[in-house]
Amino acid sequence: MAEFSDTLSGGNAEAGRKVFFESPAASCSKCHKAGGLGGDNGPVLDGVAARESREFILESILFPNAVINSNFQTVVVVLNGNLGLSGTLKSETETNLVLITPEDGPVEVQKTNVLRRWIGASPMPEGIWQSLSKQELRDVIEFVASLKSSN
């Protein structure tokens, strides 16, 4: 992380907002919500700056598997017939799981059909930061660091 310490300050929050919401390379808002806009497959970022440091924000971008919010862990299941399925666990009862999958949205699975189940990697892709310039990364960190209150 030392080589990225220069991205922790000096960014432009408005430019970072644009990258967050509009950059196809970053695609942050596809999964994360900020200011009521964005997706539901990752943690809502409103108020994150009141709870976490800029270093934590940078680490979460560089190493998305380092700390995974338990509400957004990927669950992987192998079903009867050796069919695989993965997604974010939305709900679980004694008999069923509901996984939010990137392809199909909510999918209900009967537990009696599950042969194997485990926690998978973060749904946030490793290396997504590589599609950004250092300035864009600095700007995104500045934008996320500006999200101090929950909406």
Structure description:
- With 151 residues, this protein is an alpha+beta fold.
- It has two domains: 2-68 and 125-145, Cytochrome Bc1 Complex, Chain D, domain 2 (Orthogonal Bundle); 74-119, SH3 type barrels.
- The chain has four helices and seven strands; from the N terminus they run H-E-E-H-H-E-E-E-E-E-H.
- The chain has helices spanning 13-22, 48-51, 54-62, 134-145; strands at 33-34, 37-38, 74-79, 83-92, 96-101, 105-110, 114-119.
- A five-stranded antiparallel sheet has the order 6-5-4-3-7, with no helix packed on it. A two-stranded antiparallel ribbon has the order 1-2.
- The radius of gyration is 17 Å and the shape is elongated.
CATH class category label of the largest domain = Mainly Alpha
Strand order of the largest sheet: 6-5-4-3-7
Estimate nothing, just give the exact number of structural domains.
2
> Whole-number radius of gyration?
17 Å
Give a brief outline of the structure.
By secondary structure, the chain is an alpha+beta fold.
Question: Which descriptors would you attach to this protein?
Answer:
151 residues, alpha+beta, Cytochrome Bc1 Complex, Chain D, domain 2, SH3 type barrels, 2 domains, five-stranded antiparallel sheet, two-stranded antiparallel ribbon, elongated
